[in-house]
Fold:
Amino acid sequence: MTRIEVAPESLFGPENLPYGVFAPPGRPFRVGVRLGDCVIDLAVALDDSTFAATSLNPFLAQGSARWHEVRDRLLALAAADLPAAAVHSLAEVELKLPIEVGDYVDFYASLDHATNLGRLFRPDSEPLLPNWRHLPVGYHGRAGTVVVSGTDIVRPRGQRRTDSGTPDFGPSRRLDIEAELGFVVGAGSTLGQPIDIEDFGAHVFGVALVNDWSARDIQAWEYQPLGPFLGKSFATSLAAWITPLAALAAARIPLPAQTPEPLPYLRAEAPWGLDIDLTVHWDGTPVSYPPFARMYWSPAQMLTHLTANGAATRTGDLYASGTISGPEPDQRGSFIELSWGGTEPIRVNGQKRTFLEDGDEIVLTASAPGPGTRRIGLGEVRGRIWAARERDD
Structure:
């Protein structure tokens, strides 16, 4: 038997316990939870074959009552001696994508981000389009290109508008990030039956950091009239650890005022957001501190609107908040905002930078209030840019 010792300053103490999928050296992937710098093998610790699966989906599909029952057992285990076979050093295991992603939806829920882009793209018009304050704007992304943190990102190729107004084809010259928070659906819903805004907790299991990489030049040429396509679909990075909503109880805060009042289906009895602070690291340099507390549309409103037309959800579905930005220049969650469209370079390790170059590494980290004075951490999202690949023609 062994007991996991957790440093007092750790962001991954027993009040956190995020879930992931890991493989000990020479053994198959399985479900575990992180405690300090260790991973607990749940199939062994709980003697439950559900957690011998290679994704979280079988556990998530069991529903919210089961999620809470397992968390109660884990809270007790975190303070007890565990079988040595159930404890693994985080440094020695391999991590993989923790969920089988069914569908992926990306929203545009930050008022500050939407306002910044409106001012950049439509300087002579109102920054927000007429529908923005009435519904959570979003689009369907590509689930098959959601990758786990640490996966290298190949610079995408596509059509880019030239100065003559006609396109050419080649690697993106304006490769960007989007610092976001993702929400993982555990219990799906029936086709034709919208999810009521008060039922959010029965369907969403937890949250994870997301970097929705964006090729701004490809996107700018292709997005009218149907919206994002190749400029977004080449890669979306997801953290290896899913933080359960139950760990974020102390991070709930009132939602900022919404004007005008949303339509009835988007009104909650006590609307709430999350007080989560992000940091964007560019080649090791912190360059931005986006605050999720500023988000205009709530996680529950996003899910309710996503299903308002009767669209079904499935276990493992992922939806993300869209870029998280604040009102201050150092709170912008994308480089198109930080560099103001490339006109105001950012200083990174003594160099002036605007968009991503080959070899750059981006790391997103985040923390939130936990019980008492403790804070809890979200699993990081890391990705390095590799040069575009030539076509086989």
Remarks:
- The chain has a mean pLDDT of 96.
- The CA atoms of residues 151 and 383 lie 6 Å apart.
